[in-house]
Design a protein that fits this description.
The strands form three sheets. Strands 5-6-7-16-13-12-9-10 form an eight-stranded antiparallel β-sheet, covered by helices on one side. It has a six-stranded antiparallel β-sheet with strand order 4-3-8-15-14-11, with no helix packed on it. The chain has a two-stranded antiparallel ribbon with strand order 1-2. The chain is mainly beta. Helices cover 9% and strands 43% of the residues. The N and C termini lie far apart (57 Å).
Length: 258
């Protein structure tokens, strides 16, 4: 059976000076590895007084392509633009301090989080705590973040989360155990509207590439398309850079005894 394995043991029975050996076959069931299910794309808001509101229950009549939400904070719609992109349209009815989009109402059972801070971080998900977000000093894009997103990876699948606003907006890429969230810190006054876009990519690995590679590819293609449309690609690299043998970055600020 595909979900079982047969183990053979040697059973030795000793009688006086004579030993008889028989084979004993034991069938041990091996459960199929659990594949994490991507949580639904939702939003959250922080009020001016610091109250955090999770917005996870769509209004009646919502569909997979268009989800509607309403509350004392305002109204919102999450529209699925294509296979991987979502657009949030939000109308505030009271002042908002932060908008979290996407925000996920459940954990993604990943093994690690790949986080593009400076040269990149690989973070063990099991060492994180639920609801304890990463320090905001390292989360800002543009800034210490190379691009506005991160990837959660589990064995042979991955979930990529990226901001796809063009022109790019300042955003904080936050992580906690089993989740990544994008937080916009521009205050929104009562009566104002905002729109944000995000990409959520559910990908699997194969013989060609690791799962996180496939999770990043749609964002890479989207970025190249928009940069080319605005005349930012191709980049005219100087000849001295093209002919250089390499580049090394050595960070010494955290060494007590250099």
């Amino acid at each position: 059976q595909s979900d079982a394995v047969t183990l053979t043991f040697a059973l030795i029975v000793t009688k006086g000076d004579v030993s008889d050996t028989d084979d004993l076959n034991v069938v041990v069931a091996i459960p199929e590895p659990t594949v994490p299910v991507p949580p639904p794309v939702r939003l959250a808001v922080t009020l001016q007084d610091g109250t955090f509101i999770r917005i996870s229950q769509p209004a009646e009549g919502s569909t997979d392509l268009l989800q509607q939400f309403a509350g004392s904070w305002g109204r919102a719609e999450i529209r699925k633009v294509d296979a991987v992109q979502y657009e949030l349209s939000l109308a505030a009815t009271q002042p908002l301090k932060h908008v979290w989009f996407p925000w996920f109402p459940a954990e993604y059972a990943c093994e690690r989080i790949l986080y593009p801070h400076l040269l990149g971080l690989e973070i063990d998900n099991h060492r994180l705590s639920p609801g304890v977000w990463s320090h905001p000093d390292i989360t800002v894009y543009p800034g210490p973040m190379v691009f506005p997103g991160a990837v959660m990876e589990h064995t042979n699948v991955a979930l990529g989360v990226f901001a796809t606003n063009w022109p790019p907006l300042q955003v904080n890429v936050l992580y906690a155990r089993g989740t990544v969230a994008l937080r916009y810190d521009e205050p929104i006054a009562a009566g104002q509207n905002r729109q944000y876009r995000a990409m959520v990519v559910d990908a699997a690995g194969d013989a060609r590439a690791e799962p996180w590679h496939h999770a990043v590819e749609p964002y890479r293609d989207w970025l190249r398309m928009n940069m080319a449309a605005d005349g930012l690609l191709p980049i005219a690299y100087p000849e001295w850079l093209l002919s250089a043998h390499g580049w090394s970055n050595v960070q010494l600020e955290d060494y007590d005894d250099p």
